[in-house]
Prior knowledge:
A 7-stranded parallel β-sheet has the order 3-2-1-4-5-6-7, with helices on both faces. The protein has helices spanning 21-32, 45-58, 72-86, 109-136, 159-179, 201-208, 219-231; strands spanning 12-15, 36-41, 63-66, 91-94, 141-146, 183-190, 238-242. The chain contains 7 helices and 7 strands. α1 crosses α7 (219-231), α3 (72-86) runs parallel beside α4 and α4 (109-136) runs parallel beside α5. The protein has one domain (10-194, 217-244): 3-Layer(aba) Sandwich (Rossmann fold). α4 (109-136) links the parallel β4 and β5 (141-146). With 258 residues, it is an alpha/beta fold.
Amino acid sequence: MSSAASPQTVPTVLVTGAGKRLGRAIALGLATAGWRVAVHYRESVADAEQTTAECAALCAGAQCFAADLSDEKQTKGLIHTVVERMGRVDAVVNSAALFEHDSAESFSYDMLQKHMLTNTAAAIMLAQQLHAHACARDGTGVAVNMLDQKLWNLNPDFFSYTLSKAALETANTLLAKALAPRLRVVGVAPGLTLTSHMLSDEKFQDLHKLSPLGRSSTVEDVVATVLFVLNNPSITGTTLLVDGGQHLTAFERDFSLM
């Protein structure tokens, strides 16, 4: 891509939850590939500003945007705000997610609602608004929804989280049918990719190997898959599992509780 390219001709992607972890890696990977990145965050402003600065060094024009995705008004206005400041949006990668533990025994309306708003409703709303923007500029767009291999390998841990992601996986199909041909909608479902405060480094490495291929997904694998989805105009209404085959191995518990 020429350094003289106009910002209006450079593809722009909104990555939600891009201040930290996998969202940050996706943002940096897409910036490396020549995408202008709109870095979304809710509260982690310092992390988002760091991600934005690093993205801007890779592809000029990155900016950061705050929004609480559990709030309908803020979510509905996010695409409009990005367009106002950056001129266009060609894709959304829905990486932000709420991941709080509950079980069938501790399930509550409140816990399900929290997960459904952030993990499901927000992604649908952003797809809706991206589709409207694509129609207005007589273009096309792509919505990529980050899912989870556990949908194909169910266990009862993180009950409300799993329900919210299952609903989002179904929404992929509904949105792909409803919003074509302007918008493509695709899921990407990693396996165990990053460790957390619930796992020691040694335990993470052991669990990462529990797959038919002897390794689960890496950050690089996930970023490459998102980029593949964005660049392939023939993919919509499906989910790509990127997990080393972990979904083929029965797990009675979530990784973080094994």
